[in-house]
Amino acid sequence: MRIVIAEDDPLLREGLALLLRAEGLDVVAKTERPEPFLEAVDEHKPDVAIVDVRMPPTHTDEGIRAAVEARRRRPDLAVLVLSAYVEQAFATELLSAGASGLGYLLKERVGRVEQFLEALHRVADGGTAVDPEVVAQLLTRTRPDAGLDRLSAREQEVLAIMAEGLGNGAIAERLFVTEGAVHKHIRSIFQKLDLNPSDSVDRRVTAVLRYLEDSRRRS
């Protein structure tokens, strides 16, 4: 796996590189600004980019804009975004896009090495990885619609973990239940939200968006 890191904090940038190289991964470039990051993407053609949300010169959304441009240039590039805070607008947009190979983690998650590496590999494999704290904060701000009101507490918990991008097996491990039990909960969620198997949309993504769309409207 070839990786480019775009992070303006030198300690975090070097720490990430050391961690990834210790895992046998190939860090082909490290940058601290958006322009060299895009140049590195063009030159090295990495599999994954790890990008800080806020980068010089204004430390607002330069990292996000650079990540979007990198994906425009290389649509198959997986991107794992790191942020010190919950950027609600970006997190919601990430989920609503339903795009593959995208992740959003809080920087504190990097210190939890196993979870960070799991998220990195999931994104590299074309999946989605969203920090549990991001999901929790978004759901706290959300007023459920009538359909969501019908979900049991356990079903809402399953749906929240689904929003992190985890599959049924991983959800079962998180909740200490069988995968069959998770399947039953998800089937019930789809039924209560009137999401039919014949629908042309991804039912998992649509169920998560029912939580997050109201939050976006009220932000």
Task: Please describe what this structure looks like.
With 219 residues, the chain is an alpha/beta fold. Helix content is 54%, strand content 14%. It has eleven helices and six strands. Strands 2-1-3-4-5-6 form a six-stranded parallel beta sheet, sandwiched between helices. The termini are far apart.
Strand content: 5-15%
Task: Quickly count the domains.
Answer: 2
Low-confidence blocks of residues: none
User: What's the helix count?
Assistant: 11
At the third CATH level, what is the topology name of the largest domain? Rossmann fold
Class by helix and strand content?
Answer: alpha/beta
Biggest β-sheet strands, sense, barrel: 6 strands, parallel
Order of helices and strands: EHEHEHEHEHEHHHHHH
Total strands: 6
Give the name of the CATH architecture of the largest domain.
3-Layer(aba) Sandwich
**CATH superfamily label of the largest domain:** Response regulator
Biggest sheet strand order reads: 2-1-3-4-5-6
**CATH class descriptor of the largest domain:** Alpha Beta
Gyration radius (Cα, Å) is: 18 Å
* Average pLDDT reading: 82
From the spread of the alpha carbons, the general shape counts as elongated
Q: What's the end-to-end separation, in Å?
A: 37 Å
Helix content: 40-55%
Modified residues (4-aspartylphosphate): 52
Organism: Virgisporangium aliadipatigenens
Pfam families: GerE (PF00196), Response_reg (PF00072)
Domain HTH luxR-type: 144-215
